Amino acid sequence: MNEYSFPNYKIVQFAKAPLLGHVKTRMQPALCLQGSVDLHRLLTQHTVNTIAQARVCPHELWVDSNLDHPFFKDLVAQSACSLKPQVAGDLGVKMASAVQSSLPSCKGLVLVGSDCPFIDEGYLRKALLSLEAGNEAVIGPANDGGYVLLGLTQYHASMFTGIEWGTERVFQQTVRQFEVLGIELDVLPVLSDIDEPVDLVLLKKLPRTNVLSLFMESSQ
After folding, report:
1. What interhelical angle do 70-78 and 33-54 show, nearest 10?
2. Model pTM greater than 0.90?
3. Phi and psi torsions of 206, nearest 5°
4. Domains recognised in the chain with CATH numbers
5. From CA 61, how far away is CA 21, in angstroms rounded?
6. For 189-202, how does the pLDDT look when each residue is reduced to its tens digit (9 = 90+)?
């Protein structure tokens, strides 16, 4: 029996298929192709586990391809998440489609990627409490100028347009888009993504029992 703290909300997680040369490519040459895939798998699994253990609300895993990949099947089997296909297009198009599709069946949703192992139960709860308190949008900034979380109770196409995805201007441009819409963003504490070789050292901040921390040690 699912007893969620926020049953009328959803968490929408984005993830890529764990294919060689398709994920964590910016980690090379610090990591080999297989090492990059291994890191991606661990980060994705970690995020799924965090959401499952938090039991805050239903969880949808939106993947870019290979819905039948054994990795995704295992994630669904091990958690209560449901699997959804991303549409073709840039990140903005993908997120807009997921939000537009998911919002009608819930009071609000929280979008996360699979690159930030520092999102914990407390962080998710802060985002959901913000929406429940009446805020229309909440955002978790990333150290690299992007964001690690976006919570919404309504959809506007312009939330995801005019953004230079993958650059250090994503957060600022997103804030600007919301200002144009007249929507005030509740801002959460800044967290770090694991995207570049320099970010690998951040995994040491995780408990030594965490497989990502162990990965850091084995990759050195």
Report:
1. 20
2. yes
3. -75, 155
4. 9-219 (3.90.550.10)
5. 21
6. 999 999 999 999 89
